[in-house]
Amino acid sequence: MIHSYEDACRFLNERAAKLGMDFGLGRMEQVLKRLGNPERAIPMVHIAGSNGKGSTLTFLKEILMAQGYEIATFTSPYLEKPNEQIQINHDMIEDGEFVGLLNELIPVLAEVENDRNYLTSFEIYTILAFMYFERKRPSIALIETGLGGRLDSTNVINPLLAIITSISLEHTQILGNTLAEIAAEKAGIIKEGISVITGVEAPDALRPIISKAAERHAPLFRIGKDFKPENRALEEGMECFDFHSEALRYIKLQLNMLGRHQLSNASLAVQACVLLDQQYGFRVGEDSIRTGLMKARWVGRFEQISDDPVIILDGAHNVSGVQVLLDTIDERYGDRQVHFIFAALKDKDFSGMIKVIEQKAASIMFTQTAMERMNEAKQLYEMSTHAEKYAEVSWQEAIRKTCKRMGEEDVLIITGSLYFLAEARPFLLKDEQ
Fold first, then answer.
1. φ, ψ dihedrals at 73, nearest 5°
2. Fold (CATH) for 303-432
3. According to a count of CB atoms within 10 Å of the terminal CB, is the N or C end of the chain lower?
4. CATH fold of the domain at 5-295
5. What angle do CA 294, 326, 77 make, to 5 degrees?
6. Domain boundaries in the chain?
7. Distance between start and end Cα atoms, the chain
8. What's the pTM?
9. Crossing angle (nearest 10°) for helices 179-186 and 203-215
10. What is the pLDDT of residues 82-136, one digit of tens each?
């Protein structure tokens, strides 16, 4: 019996430390069957991809909320509190409900688990989300994969739509060493006859998606072919673009989430709304699309949390994400000196990310957190060839020292790991206040 929220977090954290990642759907299916298959209770949209999952989900969520629907979301990782992963509209699951559902689940875990077959922490979070959504009965749930797709714990659902946002080299020791291999894993979320929307354009990554969609008789809607963002315009603190498909055209849509890549993510969300409207009776009007896109915010994605100095948090966690980050910096702050504070997990391509950052950085400060999966600052420092590189074990001191070195017009970017941002963000917000 779990008696408190703190006990619940401890229970899940111990599993995460002990079991790590263990992929497969067998355990999930066993437990969900004993629970009466709560994942079948409400309509769902499934979202996979290397980058852009969270942004696409947020755009889609805000559009549907603007239309008046009640929207459940399951996302990962969290920034400040585990409950963030399980939300309805903007309200995360309450501590008491979290504990109550976990206590209902534990006896079922005892029935299916043995010495070699324990459910991982992420699998338990996924099941708790399904249980919670079954109780609350929202209009629709948007479900983000954790890692990959084919064997991800969320892949037990049978959604109305599947979205594959982008493909880049990530988790190569798990997903594969090529774009094609990684795309094949992501394409594992494609179900028989279910429409698929993708932002993938690279031929090597697109081929496995086209092949899987054909094999599953799943209608495929491709960015750049079936729909596309056009006529991008940069405005102060805003992106503007037109959405165009065979069915319709929306002129001068506006985003507060910055970067060229956000036009693609927003277009995926708009195309999803078109299909939900046309195929599944989820009425979505143009006013709701415009309002939702404008309202969308995604914490930790090119998030400016200070004006003096300019401090931006971005959860870029692979080479592709870092390159997109640099492109956005060039567009918005191209004439300024840019300093970086960087921390990365051991299972990421930190060497590749550092090489990209070095192209833009006036200085790089390497740091770390206490998390076991986190690289040591010293190791990151030794990977760099930058002339102005520093290492500081304390990330708090890393921030303070970097801010002291910055000029009045300089920009600070804190990046490399969402887990690092989860600790740094509340510290910085408190300091800003």
1. -135, 140
2. Protein-Tyrosine Phosphatase; Chain A (3.90.190)
3. C
4. UDP-N-acetylmuramoyl-L-alanine:D-glutamate ligase (3.40.1190)
5. 65
6. 5-295, 303-432
7. 40
8. 0.90
9. 30
10. 999 999 999 999 999 999 999 999 999 999 887 678 899 999 999 999 999 999 9
